[in-house]
């Protein structure tokens, strides 16, 4: 016997059931409802449009400040 949870032993806990996914229209979005986009350069913010941006982890402080400045000018929300 491989999985005691699959077989249904009570002490192993219940199996995850269907019905716990989010609606297709909001799946993969930020909790604020905006679509996230990962950016690495200030030019990427201009191409995003009205989405929310997340600055990539490898971006340095100087370039991150520039990305934040461009995002503020365009009214794009920065998530991190």
Strands, count: 3
Shape: elongated
What proportion of the residues is helical, as a percent range? 25-40%
Strand order in space, largest sheet: 1-2-3
Structural class assignment: alpha/beta
Termini separation = 46 Å
> Average pLDDT value?
88
Unreliable spans are: none
Strand content: 5-15%
Q: Largest beta sheet, briefly?
A: 3 strands, parallel
**Treating each run of at least 4 consecutive H or I residues as one helix, how many helices?**
3
Q: List SSEs in N-to-C order.
A: HEHEHE
Radius of gyration: 20 Å
Care to describe what's here?
It is a single chain. The chain has a three-stranded parallel β-sheet, covered by helices on one side. The chain has three helices and three strands, in the order αβαβαβ. The radius of gyration is 20 Å and the shape is elongated. It has 80 residues and is an alpha/beta fold. α2 runs parallel beside α3 (61-74). The chain has a domain at 33-80. α3 links the parallel β2 (52-55) and β3 (77-78). It is 31% helix and 12% strand.
Short description:
This protein has 80 residues and is of the alpha/beta class.
Quick tags:
80 residues, alpha/beta, three-stranded parallel sheet, 3 helices
Secondary-structure map:
Blueprint: H1 4-7, E1 36-39, H2 42-48, E2 52-55, H3 61-74, E3 77-78
Parallel strand pairs: 1-2, 2-3
Helix pairs in contact: 2-3
């Amino acid at each position: 016997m491989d999985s005691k949870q699959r077989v249904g032993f009570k002490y192993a806990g219940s199996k995850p059931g269907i019905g716990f996914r989010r609606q297709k229209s909001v799946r993969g979005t930020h909790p604020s409802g905006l679509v996230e986009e990962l950016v690495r350069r200030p030019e990427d913010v201009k191409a995003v449009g009205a989405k929310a941006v997340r600055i990539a982890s490898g971006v340095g402080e100087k370039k991150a400040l520039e990305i934040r400045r461009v995002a503020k000018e365009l009214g794009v929300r920065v998530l991190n």
